Amino acid sequence: MADLSPIDLQKALSGMDYPTDKKHLVERARQNKANDKIVSKLDNLKQDHFDGPNEVQKAVFNE
Q1: How high is the mean pLDDT of the chain?
Q2: What's the farthest any 2 CA atoms get from each other in the chain?
Q3: Torsion over CA: 10, 13, 16, 21 (sign)
Q4: Deepest of 16, 23, 36, 41, by most Cβ within 10 A of its Cβ?
Q5: How confident is the model at residue 1 (pLDDT cuts 50, 70, 90)?
Q6: Cis peptide before 19, with omega less than 30 degrees from 0?
Q7: What is the Rg, in whole angstroms, of the alpha carbon atoms belonging to the chain?
Q8: pLDDT in tens, 23-48
Q9: For the purposes of burial, counting CB atoms within 10 Å of the CB of 15, is it exposed (0-12), middle (13-18) or buried (19 or more)?
Q10: Can you give the pLDDT at residue 4?
């Protein structure tokens, strides 16, 4: 996903507590007013449980 940067993802998930699940990632991104592309990408992840931000980043950029 070339037009989504790791920095955009970090901003979208700012304040997120880990471990967490996909539902809470999507909620946090919406609270942080992330764009629809980021929210959609998070909502469509295959993985549901994340131990930390690095795991989220791997899931987002490696799918």
Answers
A1: 94
A2: 27
A3: negative
A4: 41
A5: very low
A6: yes
A7: 10
A8: 999 999 999 999 999 999 999 999 99
A9: exposed
A10: 86
**Long-range contacts, 11-14 (Cβ 8 Å, 24+):** 12/38, 12/39, 12/42, 13/53, 13/56
| N-term to C-term CA, the chain | 9
Quick one: pLDDT band at residue 13, thresholds 50, 70, 90? Answer: very high
Model pTM score: 0.91
pLDDT of 19 reads 98
Assigned token pair, 47: 């993985």
Q: Which amino acid is at 39?
A: V
Separation of alpha carbons 32 and 49, rounded Å: 20
* Angle, helices 36-43/53-62, rounded to nearest 10 degrees: 90
